[in-house]
Amino acid sequence: MLEIKNLHARIVEDGTEIIRGLNLTVKAGEVAAIMGPNGSGKSTLSYILAGREDYEVTEGDILYNGESILEMDPAERAAAGIFLAFQYPMEIPGVATMEFLKVAMNAQRKARDEEPLKIPELLKRVKEAAGSLNMDMAMLKRPLNVGFSGGEKKRAEILQMKLLEPKLCVLDETDSGLDIDALKIVADGVNALRSPDRAIVVITHYQRLLEYIVPDSVHVLYRGQVIKSGDKSLAVELEENGYAGIIEEAA
Amino acid sequence: MNLQITPQRTLAETAIIDAFGERLSALPGDGAVMVKRDNAIEAVKAGLPTKRVESWHYTDLRRLLTSVPPHDETANAKAVAPLIEGSTVLSVLNGVASEKPAAIDGVTVQPLAEKLADGSFAPALETYGSDDAIGALNIAFVGDGFFVDIAEGSELEAPLELQNVQAGGQTHVRLPVRVGNGAKATIVERQTGSGAALASSVSQLLLGDDAEILWIIVQDQPETATHFAQFKAELGKNSKLTLFIMNAGGKLVRQEVVVDAKGEGADFKLRGVNLLAGDSHTDVTMVLDHSVPHTTSTEVIRNVVTGRAKGVFQGRINVAQYAQKTDAKMACNTLLLSDDGEFSTKPELEIFADDVQCGHGATVTEIDHNHLFYLMARGIDEKTARGLLVKAFLAEVIEELEDEPTVEALEALLDGWFATHG
Ligand SMILES: Nc1ncnc2c1ncn2[C@@H]1O[C@H](COP(=O)(O)OP(=O)(O)OP(=O)(O)O)[C@@H](O)[C@H]1O
Ligand SMILES: [Mg+2]
């Protein structure tokens, strides 16, 4: 479903290369975990997948269902089924959360030639999804993410993911900032989306999340490259020994 | 008038002076009104204001007013649907008051032409200073309008919409509204049309003690029209006036707001939304006098500028020496959507009292790229996402009106504007 081939990318503004020859393949139905020290390029990779313009791909390609997405803008990628749950969801004053959900859901439906959702149906879906995440509907009347606590923001990201039903979900440290109960709720939400036609990429620092969302593969990202891949036991090993051994091994 | 030698007249000045000669005999008015008209045209003869006149510094009228259309008898303006459903509509079509609607409880309406003809309106035909070019132009040519009197204590259920619709040529209209003590109403002033007109319109509001008025001006003239408007108000004791102005059209637009908070406890709020596109030039100039103690005012102006449009907001607040405890705050924020757009802000605080609170702030920003990315990452196409962010920028001022049909109507106008110009 996702094939990243020898990807090189740099920051447009100052030309710094962050992703330096990264290879990664994630199949439909697979849950892949990406781990790696701070600053190794995990969030950058997720932004590049989503199409953020601050980064420029200088070499290599990203194939989604066999086709390059490099020429697509973020909205086109999202409509094609790519979803990024942000590490730091942005606060957007003046845009009511509910209105935003409506516009986003219908924009994606429109891009797929589907009829827009009628308000009652939309409300029903939002209520259901919010309920399953233990979210208060009153929160959705507020401007998007404005004044939401760290945990509430993460939940709001998962809420959007549930409603938009993407095919490739990228979760950037969705577990950080969540208490244990919220972590379980969010993990249940993600697990409910597991399906043979959907791939999930989980970026995390903690083995704990991977006990709830059990990955099929684990990849270690370091200085813009995947330096080691393995199964879920790799995450356990990292938890015990840290990154030093693996980094040395790769060097 | 000044004694300096009159420079060579511009085409526009000549056209205005010639038009006066042609129109005079057709304009209503007794001797007193005619004297006012004669004096007013003298001011025009002295020359339209240039950027050397302080209050016209950003809008060099002499240079910007390049052509003046002749009066057009055949122009056929039609009333438009009211902004807010269920409103009582009084329309001035092509400068002429249309027939009165059925009686409204607590409201007396008279076509202004009658009050010009019998001279009873002559004392109200006053400019507010030597730089009052709009006032002078309007006094010289005003033909009609509505004189509205809202009786003491009456609360109007439906909004009253005063429409001024042009279809080309020249229209010069006045809309005086007297609001009795304790009365409450929402008044919509629609300035719209379909032609390349020169339109002048002066609204005069006299607000009684304890009266409360929400006055909404919506100007969406075509991009060929020249629109000169003035809103003058005097506020009685403990009265409240909220003036909401939306400019969303016109080629050359100047909207003046002249408010005198002359009753203790009076409160004035100005909320402005300027949507500026194309090659237009739009100037909102406010002069607010806090003449007595314990009056309050806040002004919040939000501008969205695209294309090569230019905008101006001048806000002058005068606090008289004995007007202690005045509380005045002014903010002007601009969202620039294009590299060639421009907005100039000039706050002026003239404070002669010592125990007052006055502040102002101005910002110019662009669309936040991080916000845009976030919205697009959810599948919202760029134009729609930008539209949401523009709306978000304006939401605060529009939603503050609280009344849902009003907010929705204004947002619909905004959506329409953004669909064509965003
Ligand atoms: N827009 C940017 N401007 C400047 N530096 C950037 C930018 N984006 C990323 N970087 C730098 O690139 C490196 C990788 O950042 P990135 O956020 O991808 O790391 P990460 O692996 O997600 O780290 P963490 O685990 O702390 O979230 C860092 O050194 C970061 O400072
Ligand atoms: Mg990160």
TrEMBL record, chain A:
ATP-binding as UniProt keyword:
yes
Nucleotide-binding as a keyword?
yes
Keyword annotations for this protein?
ATP-binding, Nucleotide-binding
Instruction: Cite the Pfam families for this sequence.
Output: ABC_tran
**Annotated GO MF terms:** ATP binding; ATP hydrolysis activity
Q: Residue ranges of the ABC transporter domain?
A: 2-248
Similarity annotation: Belongs to the ABC transporter superfamily. Ycf16 family.
- The name under which this protein is listed is ABC transporter ATP-binding protein
Origin organism is Mesorhizobium alhagi CCNWXJ12-2
Automatic annotation (TrEMBL), chain B:
Q: Which residues form the SUF system FeS cluster assembly SufBD core domain?
A: 169-393
Q: Which GO terms describe its biological process?
A: iron-sulfur cluster assembly
Q: State one Pfam family annotation.
A: SUFBD_core
**SUPFAM superfamilies (UniProt xref):** Stabilizer of iron transporter SufD (SSF101960)
Q: Could you tell me which InterPro entries the record lists for this protein?
A: Fe-S_cluster_assembly_SufBD, SUF_FeS_clus_asmbl_SufBD_core, SUF_FeS_clus_asmbl_SufBD_sf, SUF_FeS_clus_asmbl_SufD
Listed name of the protein = SUF system FeS cluster assembly SufBD core domain-containing protein
Q: Which organism is it from?
A: Mesorhizobium alhagi CCNWXJ12-2
